[in-house]
Amino acid sequence: MRGGGGLWQLSQCLARRLSRSKPRGMPRAFATAPAAETVELKKTALHDLHVEHGGKMVPFAGWSMPLQYNDSIMDSTLHCRAAAGLFDVSHMCGLSLRGRDCVPFLETLVIADVAGLRPGTGTLTVFTNERGGAIDDSVVTKVGDDHIYLVVNAGCRDKDLAHIGAHLDDFKAKGGDVEWHIHDERSLLALQGPLAAPVLQLLMKDDLSKIYFGEFRTLDINGAHCFLTRTGYTGEDGFEISVPSDHAVDLTRAILEKSEGKVRLTGLGARDSLRLEAGLCLYGNDMEQHTTPVEAGLSWAIGKRRRAEGGFLGAKVILKQLQEGPPIRRVGFFSNGPPPRSHSEILSSSSSGGEKIGEVTSGGFSPCLKKNIAMGYVKSGFHKPGTQVKIVIRGKANDGIVTKMPFVPTKYYKPS
């Protein structure tokens, strides 16, 4: 989820370039426009603070974002798992749907059982098209029966808003009561790691021990009225904090100061390695418009009622795959040799050379496991853990094995 674009490849390529004394320009493969140097990049409210703290700024989804700071991507990945990392994810798009029909409207576009959510709780979901493909993934929260809050990916913002807006116009023309608001006046921070809750607790009166994974609250943090969701994109316990942009710098400084150096600002590079270790999809790599939620391993996100009733775009295709099984499946791999990269071919393990059975979508070296990890799609039948495969890197077939995900155990805060 939550990005859009090849962050791992971006981080590795740019980390090498940034270490040179005279770095060259951005490679075209990672530019956000045909001539990125001539395009005015958007800046988050924290841009100057990133620069102040040594942030190495790169173009991403039309924004100037920190790839890393003065530590290495490996170090910041390990620090987030051991202590905590603070990420500026203000490039992502938060929006609210309000009105008595906001829930039934959203259910025409996503696979989740939104009506079945308790107020103040949320879930991962997928926006689908008429063919059952994924337009985007999103965390959707039912604030109440007449208020839905969701966050969509930065790289998908324009197409998501156009898609939602077109269907909203049709829905309202038929008498539906729904309005929407895009929260461009707010910034979004992600505080992740085992020290996230203890540090954040120092800045607020509400008891964080009573807020569990997937739950949402509106409350005051460091004197600002915030939307707080206990969620994240790392596999660690943590929070996404939507804060009014004029309070974003103060809140960031307060978190860093209260932590006494234990919380570090963390960039896109470590964000990508953390999410890959957690087995989480990156839209644009591991899920695209031709990929169904069933193929992507997200069948669990399709509520029981939705399986029975359908009613969302592409339901016929998706429900058929649930019954008969999908032709391809997203799986994880361990491998030998160089780290796998996006588009590396996956072959069946055969003494005669093997047939092509799939393709890697994300891969790299795991800072925590100290071994190569990857995810990708293979033909059904080759998806079972323990299946031996070959992964082709630079023309050479390297040994790989299908494994369960997440690669690193998740540590979400749930009731015992």
UniProtKB/TrEMBL annotation:
Spell out the InterPro entries in the cross-references: GcvT, GcvT/YgfZ/DmdA, GcvT/YgfZ_C, GcvT_C, GCVT_N, TrmE/GcvT-like
UniProt domain Aminomethyltransferase C-terminal: residue ranges: 329-408
Compositionally biased spans, kind Low complexity: 345-354
Sequence segments annotated as region (Disordered): 336-355
Q: Where are its TM segments located?
A: none
Subcellular location(s): the record lists: Mitochondrion
Q: Which Pfam families match?
A: GCV_T, GCV_T_C
UniProt keyword terms in alphabetical order: Aminotransferase, Mitochondrion, Transferase, Transit peptide
Against SUPFAM superfamilies, the record matches this protein to: Aminomethyltransferase beta-barrel domain (SSF101790), Folate-binding domain (SSF103025)
Which segment of the chain is annotated as a signal peptide?
A: none
Q: Which GO terms describe its biological process?
A: glycine catabolic process
Keyword Mitochondrion part of the UniProt annotation: yes
Write down any Gene Ontology CC term: glycine cleavage complex
Reactions catalysed, as given in the entry: N(6)-[(R)-S(8)-aminomethyldihydrolipoyl]-L-lysyl-[protein] + (6S)-5,6,7,8-tetrahydrofolate = N(6)-[(R)-dihydrolipoyl]-L-lysyl-[protein] + (6R)-5,10-methylene-5,6,7,8-tetrahydrofolate + NH4(+)
Q: Which GO terms describe its molecular function?
A: aminomethyltransferase activity; transaminase activity
- Write out the residues that bind substrate: E240
Where the record annotates domain GCVT N-terminal, the positions are: 46-304
Listed EC numbers: 2.1.2.10
* Function in brief: The glycine cleavage system catalyzes the degradation of glycine.
Indicate the family of this protein. Belongs to the GcvT family.
> What binding partners and quaternary form does the record give?
The glycine cleavage system is composed of four proteins: P, T, L and H.
| Record PANTHER family | AMINOMETHYLTRANSFERASE (PTHR43757), AMINOMETHYLTRANSFERASE, MITOCHONDRIAL (PTHR43757:SF2)
- Protein name (database record): Aminomethyltransferase
Q: Which organism's genome codes for this protein?
A: Ensete ventricosum
